[in-house]
């Protein structure tokens, strides 16, 4: 098959910013190539290296990548954030003469949801992997930055207030008082309704959607996704490259967190749990950028340790440093309080031979269910402290949890299942074409 993979950003990373979605596509593309498929990527590029909307081809680690620079410099209307005529035109030019069998979309930030419509117009079947909640929530996480809680219900009036600070000139606030003209009363609400209608219409044209976990699929079915054209394909990792030999037994000296240090990741829950442990002989190592979160810069203050406890804020790390970081940890904690769609770091920790503890939420529940990690109640520092204490004191359990790397799915298996879905889509399209 000739396959095009479309993603919001790809390697080489800008400021080492590529995350789990990019890593998944990198590994999936390699595995599909190994299965004999021709694979190319189309992606957006930020930064000032090239003029706006310049198309720049690149070959990166065996994959041909077409990048289109987009810094939103010409955005005059809210609609241009998700339906860009300029990106549409570049995508059409990229597809010219290629005749791919199928296009697989992974994310639309800096691109355009209407790229799906371009494929359908050209008769190219479309598959879409739902890596986060961006198609439902323009913050991507269904997590309210002010209330600091998951948005169980999608209330677009509440969304207007949440999103307005990001685009104050593009997304107007609704009026507090009643007005005769419905649009004058709710201009922001109508703006988001147009966005949602466009997104729903484009997604409905996909031949298949893929979710990395059942929980994620269920949230999109609630949103309106067709369950008949929606499947779960668990992500795979390059287990051969990441798995390490079993560790020698050792006492717990270093509990760690790896990832962006922002409220939805629940790092404060981990710090609170560490305080409850009260162990001055154990270090808590927090690896990752403490980033401003939607205008708030006070999160680091919330993470300051109690006197006598060793909490180390170690800052940003490069992707290449991850194996060394994991090798130094005796327990890895993923304390997220948002609905994680998969939880790449938890699986990487298991492959590195580290006992993993995760918040039993969203896609992380699968890691608990399969035995890859121990779970605790989301947001509950007391319960996390209980699980950590059990691991610290039980050498046999720690050794058992440190030998769970074999439970992590390999990317080759993931690619084979993805390929089978591609073939089913092509057969179905052919039968109706």
Provide a descriptive summary of the structure in words.
- It is a single chain.
- The protein folds into 2 domains: 2-236 and 411-432, Rossmann fold; 241-407, Rossmann fold, CATH 3.40.50.
- The protein is globular and about 60 Å long.
- It has 433 residues and is of the alpha/beta class.
- The longest helix is centred in the last third of the chain and has 22 residues, at 411-432.
- The chain contains 16 helices and 16 strands.
- The mean pLDDT is 94.
Features:
433 residues, alpha/beta, Rossmann fold, 8-stranded mixed sheet, 6-stranded parallel sheet, globular
The side-by-side strand order for the widest beta sheet comes to 3-4-2-1-5-6-9-10
According to CATH, the homologous superfamily of the largest domain is: Glycogen Phosphorylase B
CATH class of the largest domain: Alpha Beta
Oligomer: single chain
Within the CATH hierarchy, at the fold level, what is the topology of the largest domain? Rossmann fold
Count of separate structural domains: 2
Structural class: alpha/beta
Broad shape:
globular
* Mean model confidence by pLDDT: 94
Strand content: 15-25%
Tally of contiguous helical segments: 16
Sheet of most strands: 8 strands, mixed
Question: Helical amount among residues, as a percent range?
Answer: 25-40%
Poorly predicted regions? none
What is the second-level CATH architecture of the largest domain?
Answer: 3-Layer(aba) Sandwich
- Give Rg in angstroms: 22 Å
Distance between the termini: 18 Å
